[in-house]
Automatic annotation (TrEMBL):
Keywords: Hydrolase, Metal-binding. Belongs to the metallo-dependent hydrolases superfamily. Phosphotriesterase family. This is Phosphotriesterase-related protein. The lineage of its organism: Bacteria, Bacillati, Actinomycetota, Actinomycetes, Kitasatosporales. It comes from Streptomyces albiaxialis. PANTHER family: PHOSPHOTRIESTERASE-RELATED, PHOSPHOTRIESTERASE-RELATED PROTEIN. It comes from the Bacteria.
Length: 320
C-alpha cells in the first residue's frame, strides 16, 4: 500500500494515516466487506470471514486492476458484525486502502450498551475506539458511521447515538456518515448533528438515492452536507434509472461537489461470485450511463475521488 506523504490531508485507514495525494483512483464511499445483519436467521444479510472474505478480496483486487479502485470506506460499525482484523487483511492483500468505522447503526441493531446510556457515556465509548483501536486490535476508525435512524424523526436511542457521534467526531476530527432508512429522515439527522456543533461539511447523509425527493437533496447540499447516492445497483429498492435521474437533477442544480457514490454491498448474494452486481457495478454500469448523459471525466473524478476524500478529511476543494 502507498506510503503516506509528509504533508497534506490524511485519511485514517486500517493500515494507518494515508495522504490524499496517495489516493489516485476512485473511492467507494459506502461499502461493507465483513458484516452480519442477520435478523431473520436465513443468513442472507451476511458477509462472513470463512465463506466470503476470499471472494470479497478477489473482487476488490480486480477493481483495483481494471478501474484503479484506491480506497473503500467500510461502514460496518458496532452491532453490525464488524471485524477489524479481516479489514486489515483485505486491505493488505488487495492493495486497496480501507477506512474502518465506529458508531451505532439504526435501532433494530443497537447493542445493549445504548439502553439508558447518556450521550456523554456513548461519546466516551466511541472515543475509546478512536484512541485504542477496534475489536481488540490497534486498527483505528477513520469515520463515524453508519450512524442510523429510521422514519422521519430519529427515535430517542437513535438521537442519542447521533449526538454522541457528532461529539466524538468533533473531538477526534473525524466525519459522520449516516444511515437514513430508505432515504428518510436525513434533514432531521443533519439538524441533530449540526446542533452539536459539527460542521455540515463533515456530514454525509446516506441512502438519498432511495428517496425520490429532489428538493430534499438540494436542501441537504445547500447546507454543505454530502448527499450519498450509495445503493447503486440495488434494483429491488430503487431502479438505477431513477437514481440516474435524481443524480442528474442534483448536478444540474449545481451540487456536484456534494455527491458521493457507492453500492452498499450488504448481502453475500450481491457478490459477483453469487451472480450479484458486485462492488464494481458503479464502474461497469452506472458511470457509463452518466457519461452517456454528458457528465465529463472531471465531474466523475469529483464525485468518486475528491468528494469522498474531502468528506473524510474536512479538506477544502483547493487541497484535493
Amino acid at each position: 500500500m502507498s506510503t503516506p506523504h509528509a504533508s497534506g490531508p490524511l485519511v485514517r485507514t486500517v493500515a494507518g494515516p494515508l495522504s490524499c495525494a496517495a489516493v489516485p483512483g476512485p473511492v467507494l464511499a459506502h461499502e461493507h466487506l465483513v458484516l452480519d445483519l442477520d435478523l431473520k436467521g436465513d443468513g442472507a444479510a451476511v458477509l462472513d470471514v470463512p465463506h466470503h472474505e476470499e471472494p470479497v478480496t478477489r473482487e476488490l483486487a480486480g477493481l483495483r486492476e481494471h478501474f484503479g479502485l484506491s480506497l473503500v470506506v467500510e461502514l460496518t460499525c458496532r452491532g453490525m458484525g464488524r471485524d477489524a482484523r479481516a479489514l486489515a487483511r483485505i486491505a493488505e492483500r488487495t492493495g486497496v486502502a480501507v477506512v474502518a468505522a465506529t458508531g451505532w447503526y439504526y435501532e433494530p441493531f443497537h447493542t445493549p450498551e445504548l439502553e439508558g446510556a447518556s450521550i456523554g457515556q456513548l461519546t466516551d465509548t466511541l472515543l475509546a475506539e478512536v484512541r485504542d483501536g477496534l475489536d481488540g486490535t490497534d486498527v483505528r476508525p477513520g469515520v463515524l458511521g453508519e450512524v442510523g435512524s429510521h422514519g422521519d424523526t430519529p427515535s430517542d436511542p437513535e438521537a442519542r447515538s447521533l449526538r454522541a457521534a457528532a461529539r466524538a467526531a468533533l473531538e477526534s476530527d473525524l466525519s459522520v456518515a449516516t444511515h437514513a432508512q430508505l432515504g428518510r429522515g436525513g434533514l432531521a439527522q443533519l439538524d441533530l448533528l449540526t446542533g452539536e456543533g459539527l460542521p455540515p461539511q463533515r456530514v454525509c447523509v446516506g441512502h438519498q438515492d432511495l428517496l425520490d425527493e429532489p428538493g430534499v437533496h438540494r436542501e441537504l447540499a445547500r447546507s454543505g452536507a454530502y448527499v450519498a447516492f450509495d445503493t447503486v445497483g440495488k434494483e429491488s429498492y430503487q431502479s438505477d434509472e431513477t437514481r440516474l435521474r435524481l443524480l442528474l437533477e442534483l448536478l444540474e442544480a449545481g451540487h456536484a461537489d456534494r455527491a458521493l457514490l457507492s453500492c452498499d454491498i450488504s448481502r453475500h448474494g450481491y457478490l459477483r461470485t453469487e451472480g450479484g452486481q458486485g462492488y464494481g457495478h458503479l464502474f461497469r454500469s452506472f458511470l457509463p450511463r452518466l457519461r452517456a448523459e454528458g457528465v465529463d471525466e472531471d465531474l466523475i473524478d469529483l464525485m468518486t475521488r475528491r468528494n469522498p476524500l474531502r468528506f473524510l478529511t474536512g479538506a477544502s476543494t483547493e487541497e484535493i
